[in-house]
Amino acid sequence: MDEAKQEASRAPYDVAIGGGGFVGRTLALALAKLAPQCFRVALIDAEAPRSDTRVIDDPRALALSASTKKLLDVLGVWPEIAPKAQAILSIHITDSPLDAELRPHFLGFDDELKSGEPGAYLVEHGALSRSLENAVAQERAIEMFVPATVTDYATSTFAITAKLAHGDAISARLLVAADGKRSRLRERAGIKCVAWSYPQIGIVTTVAHRRPHGGRAVQHFLPAGPFAMLPLTGNRCSIVWTEDALRGAEIMALDETSFTAELAARFGAKLGAITLAGPRQSFPLELQIARSFIDDRLALIGEAAHVVHPLAGLGLNIGMRDVAVLAEIIIEETRLGLDIGAAPGLERYQRWRRFDSALSAAVMDGLNRLFSNDSAPLRALRDLGLGLVDRTPPLKRFLVREAAGETGNVPRLLKGEKV
Ligand SMILES: Cc1cc2nc3c(=O)[nH]c(=O)nc-3n(C[C@H](O)[C@H](O)[C@H](O)COP(=O)(O)OP(=O)(O)OC[C@H]3O[C@@H](n4cnc5c(N)ncnc54)[C@H](O)[C@@H]3O)c2cc1C
Fold first, then answer.
1. Which candidate, 244, 253, 255, places its Cα nearest to that of 285?
2. Could you tell me the CA-to-CA distances from 143 to 15, 72, 327 in Å, in that order?
3. How far is CA 80 from CA 52, 69, 142, 229, in A?
4. pLDDT above 70 as % of the chain
5. Is 179 in the pocket of ligand 1 (CB under 6 A)?
6. What is the 387 CA–ligand 1 centroid distance (Å)?
7. How far does the centroid of ligand 1 lie from the alpha carbon of residue 34, in Å?
8. How far is the CA of 303 from the centre of ligand 1 (A)?
9. What is the mean pLDDT of the chain?
10. Which end of the chain is less packed: N or C, by CB atoms within 10 Å?
């Protein structure tokens, strides 16, 4: 055996994943559950323990598409999440002015969502985080390195070695960068991004309201950006409130009474009086697409590869598509006895995912620009466009399938099938 092959056979892991957020943990789980026996995964994360209060206090709720739900179901995680998930049963989209007496919606998805499986579910950050963490902890094929920061890596012919801040080194045949939008691994690979920041922030909080929401999500396009009311279990909604960055900072600095009054003016009176039911937090908003999703023995997934505007709640769902595609390729190649870190598999991953992710980011960017302004002619055009879509049932059904993640080249795990 030559030196390189000896080195590969010494690599204790098949895959090392740098970053144990939602996408890193889900990929580890998919490989541990579905790859052939003896497959070994190293999962490295800079933060630990995950169940600390900071994670639990993250006020975000995630809109998980029907396909992401199917993936979590195949991995055995969904049954734990299900009691805490709220199905979205209808969606209303409006851009009527805030002071309008009635807020008619220009585009509604009611009947389209009533037939069959709901297109999406709202799950709170802490609930999703804990369920994934519990599932990962039960897998013997996954070895956790936490807290541990990947600072560098080195490649050789048959292996890649991730270097950790405290001096350890972890060798595998493939290293996956799941280390979020400021990815150290992407930077180390010299992969540049197409990126810009929006002059907006996303204010996220939770409200309780008097009347039941009936599973209805409302997206209200206001001049400063979209204001989303997303149904949670009980009489509660998650708010994702896009604001002009300067005005948003002023709003974040308000005391609770004034903040609630600003919120109530946007929330409207339909569901009765509201109270704050969780902490508030603001997030910078940006678009970012890596120029390449791969390098020598390296694959980028989740926000390390792409960051999109949160207006349609797609970010994590796009990351879960990366997970499903990469897991499918790795498992197929392992069964065929191929080198999972070699170029052909990585190139297949990139062909499958990069254009699709860039397209999603561009569509979100276009919608944000089209709606986040107060131009009267644009408002008239938008309302005409929304009204036309509303009167075209086949197009509405297509949009529902698109949001559910059921269009395009869907990987098997997102169809609820085992690889
Ligand atoms: C306001 C807002 C609302 C959103 N709503 C939705 C929604 O409704 N639906 C949806 O699908 N998406 C939504 N998103 C997007 C979603 O939150 C993200 O896409 C998702 O959380 C990204 O997950 P990730 O695992 O890729 O990255 P992260 O969650 O950032 O995880 C990265 C992990 O890597 C670790 N790490 C970082 N550097 C290192 C290192 N050097 N070494 C080791 N570990 C490292 C970190 O500790 C972290 O655990 C929203 C985003 C925002 C801002």
1. 244
2. 11, 20, 17
3. 19, 12, 20, 25
4. 91
5. yes
6. 35
7. 24
8. 6
9. 90
10. N
Q: What is the DSSP letter of 242?
A: E
Strands 41-44 and 13-18, by their bridges, are parallel
In this prediction the pTM is 0.93
Here the tokens at position 417 are: 């099938």
Report the pLDDT averaged over residues 109-118.
69
Residue 321 or 384, more confident? 321
- Rounded Cα distance, 162 and 154, in Å: 7
The verdict on the CB of residue 303 being under 6 Å from ligand 1 is yes
Q: Is the dihedral of CA 252, 257, 262, 263 positive or negative?
A: positive
With a 6 A CB cut-off, is 184 part of the ligand 1 pocket? yes
What's the pLDDT tens digit per position in 119-148? 899 999 999 999 999 999 999 999 999 999
Ligand 1 pocket, residue 226 CB under 6 Å = no
314-323 as b/e: b if 16+ CB within 10 A:
bbbbbbbbbb
State if residue 315 touches ligand 1 by the CB under 6 angstroms criterion. yes
Q: H helices of 152-254, where? A: 184-188, 245-252
Nearest Cα residue to atom 3 of ligand 1: 310
Dihedral (CA of 279, 72, 229, 353) sign: positive
Residue carrying structure tokens 């991995």: 75
pLDDT for 347 equals 98
CA-proximal residue: ligand 1, atom 4 (nearest): 310
Least trusted range by pLDDT, from 267-281, 283-297, 403-417: 403-417
Neighbouring C-alpha atoms within 13 Å toward the C-beta of 78: 16
Handedness of CA 413, 179, 127, 116 (dihedral sign): negative
Ligand 1 mean position to 307 CA, how many Å?
9
Tokens of 308: 């999109």
Closest-CA residue, ligand 1 atom 38, reads 179
As a whole number of Å, the CA-based R_g of the chain is 22
CA of 195 to the centre of ligand 1 (A): 17
User: How far does residue 301's CA lie from ligand 1's centre (Å)?
Assistant: 11
Closest CA to 282 of 232, 334, 225: 225
| Residue 359, C-beta contacts closer than 8 angstroms, at least 6 positions apart | none
